[in-house]
Amino acid sequence: MGKDIMMLGKADVEGLTSDELEELEARGYTIFEKLGEGVTRDVYLAAYRSGNVHRTRVIKLPKTELGTFMSRANRGRRDQDLNEVCLSNRIHHPNVVEIVDSFPLGRRTVNIEPHINGTDLETLVSQTGAITDAERFDRIMTQILDGAVYLEELDLLHRDYKPSNILMTDKGDVKISDLQTAAFFTDVSDSTLPTRGGTPYTHPSLFFSLLTRVPSRASPKTEVYSLGTTMLHLLTGKRPFDYRIVEDSDGTPIEFNGETYRIKVFSGERELNPRQFDVKEHNDRLKSELRKIPKKYRGLLYDAISLAPNIAIRKVSDLRERFRETKSPEFLNSLRTGLRFIPATIATVGLIAGAFMYSYYHPREETPTVAEITDRDTYSRFSLEDIAEQSDLNQAAINVLFEPYLEDAKKRLPELEPDIERYIGLHYKDYELLGKRITNSLLRACYLHHEEALSHYQSEGEKRAAPVFSPKDIDLARKIKHNLPGYYQDPPEPAEALFSGALYLKQLMEPGRNIADVFAHYFSSDLEIAAAKISTGSTHYLPYDFENHLRKGYQQRLPPVERDLINTAIALYLITDDNGDIDWNRAPEISPFDESRVKRLFYGD
Fold first, then answer.
1. How far is CA 544 from CA 91, 441, 562, in A?
2. Using CA atoms, how far apart are residues 30 and 334, in angstroms rounded to an integer?
3. Does domain 10-114 have CATH number 3.30.200.20?
4. pLDDT > 90 in the chain, percent
5. Residues 86, 126 contacting (CB under 8 angstroms)
6. Which residue, of 66, 154, 323, 328, is most buried by count of CB atoms within 10 Å of its CB?
7. CA distance 195 to 187
């Protein structure tokens, strides 16, 4: 083992009684020294003898007293060490640590692993600094990702990837260890306990669920985040983030397993408000850290660690493929070859796009229009009952939420309708792109909140095209349109807006979204929505009933002006028919009982 070691006396082994030491020795294990300790276990080096077999082993012994409340809460849910060995029995991979023996010791489960001459990656980096040699880093990460992909292919979530849980031998062999909190994907349920392991490498949606009290769930995407932050740690020599949950007598009270804890959340030394998690600050910090590493890894790690929802790497296997591209000569050669064909490709794409747009505005009789296609989607058939998920409490909450928006619209829309009709008349082709119901709802909401929306987006530095406030970066298709017959070559800005707005709405109609999500993503940025979801712990825009408790949904954390635009558009959509006409008789009636009940649960009145 490279050094002299001495056998510890029975009184020297902290955490073990004389009887337990005798039982270990009866099984062939003699403890030499304590190698270290984690949050939940002490780790000892031991000699194993059985007949003519002599081996050096590592004993992982569960602590009788745990230091952190999260560890105590997690242990109360199951025997994590027994879980580890049960999973290990199904795992056979050179980059995942093997458990060679396991047995009960008193009320604890002891797991035995082979001893390796080496250390964990956290200790390695703290002693020798960041891994700057490209070949060495590639060898380490290739092995980590091979082991992680193997676990993913078994539908197994490790749930605690971090440098201290990855071992490397003196020969450079890498092994993933500590499967205490691992679980098969089908066995993972929503939980408010983020310990899995509640570290700076844990995805914020899991980490902050403890204080928001809204359940979250580990997934392949959260595994990618943990592996990405681990990679960044190895490259920079320090943790990219330092989110911590600590017990504090002045903290927020949390109850688990019949016990009450008071906790606070910190980033470094700065206390955070868990209900207002700043996604932009997180991503800005990430960008700052990425400037310190080689360029070839920056895009990969930004996509793995960023909280912007539309750019994330969602599976460990995809992360491995992206990593392989950073070091593959074949990839670089194919890229260089591909670059020679970019001009021709652009020309071809332009011709195809132009042909598509021309055919849309000059369709054959048998070709369905975009409006007809959209009409088949669930979005065009969306109803109040669908949003409310058939819950009386949900329906009542949504009725109360939308009532002031409908009252305001009923009062002010009559004087705005002539302007809206005039605008539609000038741009009737664009108006029919998505059908009258959704387009009229969008236009009416924008006209009702025009002044405050214009001021808001300008103050935020967002480039939006009035009067429908479509993002100005949706330009390519719009520019193609203006080369078609019947359109002005240089139209004023209002003429551009409806076309790009309609295309943008259609782009947002992804599987799994409802009309509330579509309007939310239209008026708010992805970063704003991601921040609101993390702050509230909710993936629902609207209020919803969770175990007889009314949750406000992530809409409460969006900027007020954007929330007004979204809520007005949704409320009007729900009482608008397919011809674009509002039926005020469909506006929900709210009983005094429902109003009182919702305000008591929802607003605290």
1. 41, 23, 20
2. 57
3. yes
4. 29
5. no
6. 323
7. 16
Residue type present at position 347: A
Distance, CA of 121 to CA of 141 (rounded, Å): 11
Residue with tokens 């329906």: 395
Domain segments of the chain: what residues? 10-114, 118-335, 370-474+497-603
Q: Are 275 and 536 in contact (CB under 8 A)?
A: yes
DSSP 424-446: HHHTHHHHTSS-HHHHHHHHHHH
Supply 95's token pair.
Answer: 């980059």
Condensed to tens digits (0 to 9), the pLDDT of residues 532-583 reads: 888 777 788 887 766 566 677 888 889 999 999 999 999 999 899 888 899 9
Q: Is 354 exposed, middle or buried (0-12, 13-18, 19+ CB in 10 A)?
A: middle
Instruction: Write the DSSP assignment of 356-385 as a string of letters.
Output: HHHHHHS--TTSPPHHHHHHHSGGGG--HH
Query: Which of 28-42, 75-89, 311-325, 358-372 has the weakest average pLDDT?
Result: 358-372
| Maximum distance among all Cα pairs of the chain, rounded to whole angstroms | 96
pLDDT at position 409 is: 94
Look-up of token digits 């206390």: 271
Is residue 536 a contact partner of residue 557, using CB atoms and an 8 Å limit?
yes
pTM value is 0.60
Angle between the N-to-C axes of helices 295-305 and 279-290, in degrees from 0 to 180, rounded to the nearest 10? 160
C-alpha atoms less than 13 angstroms from C-alpha of 540 in its C-beta half-sphere = 17
Q: Tokens 């998920």 — which residue? A: 389
CA distance linking residue 308 with residue 229, whole number of Å: 15
Q: Report the range out of 129-143, 552-566, 590-604 with the highest average pLDDT.
A: 129-143
**Among candidates 520, 478, 526, which has minimal Cα distance to 502?**
478
Closest Cα partner for 382 from 572, 529, 181?
572
Contact 97, 146 (CB under 8 A): no
589 vs 545: which has the higher pLDDT: 589
Residue appearing with tokens 């980033």: 267
Cα 218 → chain centroid = 9
Tokens, residue 429 = 């082709």
Q: Which residue has the tokens 């109040």?
A: 384
| Cα distance between residue 442 and residue 444, in whole Å | 6
Confirm or reject CATH 1.10.510.10 for domain 118-335, answering yes or no: yes
DSSP track, 333-362: HHHHHHHTTHHHHHHHHHHHHHHHHHHHHS
